[in-house]
Amino acid sequence: MPSLKLCSSFFLQLIFTLFVFDLANAQGLKVGFYEETCPQAEAVVKKTIVPVIAEAPSLAAPLLRMHFHDCFVRGCDGSVLLNSSTHQAEKDAIPNQSLRGFEVIDRVKTALEKACPGVVSCADILALVARDVVTAIKGPSWQVETGRRDGRVSNISEALANLLSPFANITQLKAGFQQRGLSAKDLVVLSGGHTIGISHCFSFAPRLYNFTGKGDTDPSLDPNYIARLKVKCPPGAVAPIVEMDPGSSKIFDDDYYTMVSKRRGLFHSDASLLDDSETKAYVINHASTLGSASFFEDFGVSMVNMGRVAVLTGKAGEIRKQCALVN
Ligand code: HEM
């Protein structure tokens, strides 16, 4: 039956070609994308970041958050870094006004432009910096896929529409992640990023004073913790900040899950992780120190997943010369 044999080998060939094409097309990202065009790229990023974080460890948190805020608005395309021009950019949206560390990204970009002009995208810098800051504060390391290109558009309205609210419930959070190809596991794992950093009172104050508009408190928040938070955030206080993981907010560990399991997650979105069987099981399992190794591993995997959201690759977009400006 030569024709049948010929036919099946043709189909195998076709499936193989489609598969390879699809893999290349789906992402265009790979570990070591700059191996030939700028072999020292990752070393340059690390060399810039390590001393910055050694001197100012509190910058690790906003730099990690910056990659998340980039990826959730128009995909990981560096749009969060663009300055406002004729219109207001993502940077101007309230959730982005508390981002810090843009000058660190610029410093990395300057070093990379010196080493390999016009090669490394700002979107990739955000992904590499997110990894390096976490590693620098005793967190895990992972292999970062690169090959993203930079977008040319940044709108305040898109940031406001796409960044998730700290008052979101589990249905909204899961939907927000799912829309970007991310799972409930990615949600609970990446929320573990709240093991570092700070929050302004306004991001959770209604939980203390006016949860449903009747002057009540959020019943999902530990009343003893509410009392402590009220001291730090008196009624109407906007400017004060609190550590999200008190006492170890500059060290990347798995304390976050202990906090959430004790009903001490700072945001309603953190507390909501107890309202879904899968995310709850993860929180409970990782609330003991036994879970830290797997959390570290999971965090790297989920960061890679997040870093794939709606990326521009190939000939799309551009490689910006300066991260705050389109070319
Ligand atoms: C799941 C939905 C999420 C919501 C609703 C949320 C919300 C927030 C809010 C409201 C703040 C405090 C902002 C302020 O008042 O200054 C914050 C801080 C932070 N978030 Fe999230 N976040 C989410 C997911 C993530 C993810 C996925 C990451 C990273 C993997 C992350 C990393 C951080 C970090 C590190 C900080 C501290 C920033 C600092 O110290 O300046 N968050 N988040």
From TrEMBL:
It is an enzyme of class 1 (oxidoreductase). Heme b binds at H194. Residues 1-26 form the signal peptide. Its cofactor is Ca(2+); heme b. Keywords: Calcium, Disulfide bond, Glycoprotein, Heme, Hydrogen peroxide, Iron, Metal-binding, Oxidoreductase, Peroxidase, Secreted, Signal. The keyword Calcium applies. Its EC number is 1.11.1.7. Ca(2+) 1 binds at D70, V73, G75, D77, S79, E90. Residues 28-327 form the Plant heme peroxidase family profile domain. The active site is at H69. Pfam families: peroxidase. Binds 2 calcium ions per subunit. Binds 1 heme b (iron(II)-protoporphyrin IX) group per subunit. The record marks R65 as: Transition state stabilizer. GO terms for molecular function: heme binding; lactoperoxidase activity; metal ion binding. It catalyses: 2 a phenolic donor + H2O2 = 2 a phenolic radical donor + 2 H2O. CDD domains: secretory_peroxidase. GO terms for biological process: hydrogen peroxide catabolic process; response to oxidative stress. Removal of H(2)O(2), oxidation of toxic reductants, biosynthesis and degradation of lignin, suberization, auxin catabolism, response to environmental stresses such as wounding, pathogen attack and oxidative stress. These functions might be dependent on each isozyme/isoform in each plant tissue. Belongs to the peroxidase family. Ascorbate peroxidase subfamily. Belongs to the peroxidase family. Classical plant (class III) peroxidase subfamily. This is Peroxidase. It comes from Liquidambar formosana (Formosan gum).
